[in-house]
Amino acid sequence: xxxxxxxxxxxxxxxxxxxxxxxxxxxxxxxxxxxxxxxxxxxxxxxxxxxxxxxxxxxxxxxxxxxxxxxxxxxxxxxxxxxxxxxxxxxxxxxxxxxxxxxxxxxxxxxxxxxxxxxxxxxxxxxxxxxxxxxxxxxxxxxxxxxxxxxxxxxxxxxxxxxxxxxxxxxxxxxxxxxxxxxxxxxxxxxxxxxxxxxxxxxxxxxxxxxxxxxxxxxxxxxxxxxxxxxxxxxxxxxxxxxxxxxxxxxxxxxxxxxxxxxxxxxxxxxxxxxxxxxxxxxxxxxxxxxxxxxxxxxxxxxxxxxxxxxxxxxxxxxxxxxxxxxxxxxxxxxxxxxxxxxxxxxxxxxxxxxxxxxxxxxxxxxxxxxxxxxxxxxxxxxxxxxxxxxxxxxxxxxxxxxxxxxxxxxxxxxxxxxxxxxxxxxxxxxxxxxxxxxxxxxxxxxxxxxxxxxx
Length: 456
Known about the structure:
EC number: 2.4.1.258
Enzyme class: transferase
Largest sheet: 2 strands, antiparallel
Region (Disordered): 437-456
Pathway: Protein modification; protein glycosylation
GO cellular component, one term: endoplasmic reticulum membrane
Oligomer: single chain
């Protein structure tokens, strides 16, 4: 009898341990506090995935050779930007790109050691992933199971990093480092890194409206001018060798906002006739839509104060009522929004939504542009309140977007589906962060207790 009792107790303890392990496994997948643990596991897995991709999937030449030809001209002493060219055409990126890829040019034997370049980009992929995970750990909004879709499941992102060697991942990795600095209250260093990212590729400017809003909120107009000067000064320093030789040529080539895109590469506008795609009126309409979207979000979603948005121009200490200082220790939007966001999450929301608005209104999205917003999608989808049943539609949106970007060449169906997914994300961002109506009904009065009556 005692033996049976002991065996029954042991079985009960074992069953309790299994139930506890199962509960912890569910928590590790659903609760954001487990993000560091899941991130560590996924980074280890990603190291193996990238090695497998490099060794087993054939490298495909697209722009790497042209990059090397462009920086080779600079290495040979050419400082006229209009003379720097490759097989795909003239150099159209700012000076930061030249210096970074010149380093890769020299390390890889004038660009000939493709395998070494792939390993370097695999390291960049892991660094980028660590920076992204650090942002998600600070915001504490996304359930960890979502990161499985952000990592191992995306063929296109692995291809952009280690099979195509584009400059877009370099710019985005520097940008994510800048955002980490913003979250650490190192605004000057963050602005320096932000400007460096812009000097690699101009798509980083899509984050600029959100960053300007944050700087005004944190420092006011006079206080943010030094930060903007840091951004501008770095651009001048990096471009100085080319500005001294041919300033007009450098500015028109590296910051060409009117450049035409080829219709055959577009991912998002395939359903339009090519004449409309190339039409300047269509481009102007997209620009107006972009500006309108930024204005609406700035006025009604980013600006949490009841005061006029122009009060952002004042010194924060002189605002009435005084604005809470924008630090990671402050809790913002708690009383006024559907989804309470801590300061880290609020900073990330503004930057990521600013970029997403630009992507939605882009004149054209090419396949390598997927990395512009891929790592921000989980946050954009899960920063708003999510019920148990609403997880599946959000995961489905991620899957459809991935499918659209993996459809080559793009089709009418894939490009339309991409716009529908973008529209749904915008709607949930708009309504999920809408201010909640303030109730003016006084709280019900409590009946006095016996003790309170005795006190009276």
